[in-house]
Design brief:
This protein is of the alpha/beta class. The protein is built from 23 helices and 27 strands. It has an 8-stranded parallel beta sheet. A 6-stranded mixed beta sheet has the order 13-18-17-16-14-15, covered by helices on one side. Helix 2 packs antiparallel against helix 15 (326-336) and helix 2 packs across helix 16 (342-358). The protein binds alpha-D-glucopyranose. Alpha-D-glucopyranose is lined by residues 84, 114, 158, 211, 290-291, 506.
Length: 749
């Protein structure tokens, strides 16, 4: 990469040549918009489909007549600096050629896209992959995403998303690393390393755009786009560190969130975007608004109109306007009228040019070709990595003893899972066959036909199975009668249930996060027949959020949480069910008992009356206090024991060590978790905070001493005065295989 001073000199030289219109053009990010014989706007057409005024088929017919407008004349006039949503090499190079060869200054475009969890090789949704607790894996899948996406012309991804999400009603919990700020930070930093590599000038380097800055996951009531209101201490303690970890990892872009923080929308929040991001954290990359977010400052009620919004957001530190046209329509006139200093505009242009220079786009504007694109996608190595990530993302939530007569699994133990290699499956539920649902939300480069469903994998593996999609038989037979037919040829029932991919992700909040009635009824029917015939019922869950499923947890014989696993969904699930792989995933979100408990998370405060048996304590009349599955929980096909926890005070904090032993009959990996509690601080502190974790392989009978260093610097918090403090006093250290079942030791800092 060009030396920093050389880049700054080139930026200054270029700025000096640019007109006001060309400067405003660099701030403009367009998407390929749709044109066609629509009497209504595309957004209105979408609404008409979603609210049923037109059918999906009618919508598709209208869309088929539309063509994409790539705004070539605006590019030629220097009025566009970036595109969102260009995902093929030919289009990327065609538009880049206009920008580089047909404009006055030849400033290249930068292409952004939502490459969240893979591009053509779709890997598990982030919430799933976070359950691997494995930064090395997260980095490797990030690198794969960059290799494929940059081959398709992408320069920058609008990822990683590291919004701490403690409320399972929020659909975008699927897009991040769950409820813990340390895990989100580690996940995001690993993705930044994977996306960007160690040389941004490489053609397979993809700039990371950390989002959504900040605290979008704390939207009130779990309702997407809703307000965020919290103390600055809570913001600093529980939300900002995950974004900071990504900046420290070298991310070159940041996307402000849609939400306000304490009444000031992030897009117009100078404290957030200049004081915190740039002055405190030293960030010198570019910021790009979320889609239409600048214009939406009018809806927020902080701007009188788009012109006012443009002035406020540019002044606050939003460099690039994603598709609201507020900047391109108003910035030039704002500067000419003296309401906006040209220096503010120049600063934003400089940030954008800096990233373009760092990526060497001026010297190498054509970073890909159609040949490279064709060779890059969906290689065998990519599929193997996607399958590894999917296996490591899955969480075994329940695994009861096998009923007599069930062929023994290949681990020789008496549990239902793993299944014997020749076990015959009775598979129920449409998600077992639906390849398209396997990608989960935000799979922009996906081709659903690339995905392998459970049925595909059964066929590929030669598994004997019968399948019923859960709907009643057209001939009027009830599902139960069909189950009976199938039962004769099955050893085990698989109930494949959960959420469609549209039920999580953006604009997909759910007030009730229970299973569908049809899924519950299917499991009930299977259990009724299964109990009578000695056929265990294994639930396989596809979902993009924690679900409130106490009945299933109580009733099913085994439960495998598969999330939305990506292109290798089916093979990975069978790898786990048949024991080729020993599940090691651990939940990174709490599974509540009821929707009404949301937000529910492990790092909660104790309160003055911690929930207990007596009436006047903090709990619900109608719901147990404990979650169905706690943060950090996950079973294995083997078992692990923890003993001899030791904590020694060091010069700079604590040294923690514990012995972990594989007490079962097969090799496995255990995610050892280390939590801390500051027992009495100048502000109340959570009952537990994750401060370290290690994933260790153990052979049967093997034991290992696992060590954690806890520097005191990591044990602090933001005081009443808003400064970071580390206070001496009593601490409790908890170590275990989840946040509930732990060994404990008390120490004094
Ligand atoms: C969306 C999302 C954001 C995404 C952007 C571009 O509204 O909020 O995460 O990166 O638009 O698609």
């Amino acid at each position: 990469m060009m030396e920093k001073n050389a880049i700054e000199r080139k930026i200054r030289e270029l700025l000096a040549k640019m007109t006001l219109e060309e400067k405003a053009g660099q701030l403009q990010q367009c998407g390929p918009s749709l044109v066609g014989a629509f009497e209504v706007s595309f957004e209105e057409l979408l609404d008409m489909m979603f609210d049923g005024r037109i059918s999906k088929e009618e919508f598709d017919r209208l869309m088929s007549g539309a063509k994409q407008d790539f705004h070539e004349d605006d590019i030629r006039a220097g009025r566009i600096g970036s595109f969102n949503g260009i995902g093929d090499a030919a289009t990327a190079n065609r538009l880049q050629k206009i920008a580089v060869e047909e404009t006055r200054l030849g400033i290249p475009l930068i292409y952004g896209y939502d490459v969240i969890h893979g591009f053509r090789t779709v890997t598990p949704i982030p919430l799933a992959e976070s359950c691997a607790w494995e930064p090395g894996l997260w980095e490797r899948t990030g690198r794969l995403a960059a290799e494929e996406a940059t081959a398709a012309g992408v320069h920058m991804t609008f990822a990683p998303m590291v919004d701490v999400a403690k409320d399972a009603r929020w659909g975008r919990v699927s897009e991040g690393a769950g409820e813990d700020v340390l895990l989100n930070g580690d996940y995001g930093a690993a993705k930044v390393r994977g996306f960007q590599g160690d040389d941004l000038t490489r053609e397979d380097a993809m700039a990371a755009c950390v989002k959504h800055f900040a605290a979008y996951g704390a939207c009130e009531a779990g309702r997407d786009y809703n307000r965020v209101d919290m103390s600055l201490q809570k913001l600093w303690d529980e939300y900002l560190p995950s974004y900071k970890a990504c900046i420290e990892a070298g991310a070159r872009a940041v996307m402000p969130a849609f939400n306000d923080i304490n009444g000031v929308p992030c897009s117009a929040n100078e404290w957030l975007l200049r004081d915190v991001l740039r002055k405190d954290w030293g960030f010198d990359g570019m910021t790009v608004s979320d889609a239409n977010a600048i214009a939406e400052c009018v809806n927020h009620g902080i701007a009188a109109d788009k012109r006012d919004a443009a002035r406020q957001c540019l002044r606050a530190g939003v460099d690039m306007d994603m598709t609201s046209n507020s900047y391109i329509e108003h910035v030039q006139e704002l500067v000419e009228s003296g309401e906006l200093e040209e220096s503010v505009l120049d600063e934003a242009v400089a940030d954008i040019l800096r990233v373009k220079f760092e990526m060497d786009l001026f010297e190498h504007p054509y970073r890909t070709s159609e040949e490279r694109e064709a060779d890059a996608m969906l290689t065998q190595e990519a599929r193997a990595l996607a399958r590894e990530a999917a296996v490591k993302s899955m969480v075994l939530l329940k695994n009861e003893d096998a009923p007599s007569g069930l062929p023994e699994g290949n681990s020789g133990n008496k549990k239902i899972l793993p299944l014997a290699p020749d076990a015959r499956l009775g598979i129920f539920g449409r998600l077992a066959a639906d390849r398209g649902q396997m990608t989960g939300a935000w799979a922009v480069g996906a081709n659903p036909d690339d995905c392998l469903s459970i049925l595909d994998a059964c066929r590929e593996r030669g598994i004997s199975y019968r399948y019923l999609d859960g709907a009643d038989n057209p001939e009027g037979l009830s599902t139960k009668k069909r189950i009976l037919e199938i039962a004769e040829e099955s050893d085990v029932f698989l109930a494949v249930i959960g959420e469609d991919k549209e039920e999580s992700g953006e604009a997909a909040s759910r007030a009730s996060i229970t299973l569908k009635d049809s899924d519950i009824q299917l499991v009930k029917d299977l259990l009724e027949v299964g109990k009578a015939q000695g056929k265990p019922v294994v639930a396989v869950l596809f979902n993009g959020r924690p679900l409130a499923m106490p009945w299933l947890a109580e009733s099913a014989d085994a439960i495998l949480e598969a999330w939305h696993p990506g292109v290798e969904a089916g093979p990975a699930i069978l790898d786990v069910l048949f024991g080729d792989a020993n599940p090691s995933g651990k939940l990174t979100t709490t599974f509540p008992y009821a929707s009404g408990q949301c937000p529910m998370y492990y790092a909660h405060m104790n309160t003055g009356r911690p929930g207990g048996k007596s009436k006047f304590t903090s709990k619900y009349l109608d719901t147990p206090l404990e979650p169905v599955y706690p943060f950090g929980f996950g079973l294995s096909y083997t078992t692990f024991a923890y003993e001899n926890l030791s904590v020694e005070k060091t010069e700079d904090g604590f040294h923690v060590s514990v012995t972990v032993k594989n007490t079962g009959s097969r090799a496995g990996e255990e995610i050892v978790q280390c939590y801390v509690q500051d027992v009495a601080g100048s502000r109340v502190r959570p009952v537990k905070e994750l401060k370290g974790y290690k994933k260790i392989p153990l052979a049967p009978g093997e034991e290992r001493r696992v060590e954690f260093e806890l520097p005191s610097e990591k044990l602090g918090f933001y005081s009443r005065e808003g400064t970071y403090v580390v206070e001496p006093g009593e601490f409790r250290i908890y170590v275990g295989g989840n946040s509930r079942d732990v060994l404990e030791a008390g120490v004094i800092l």
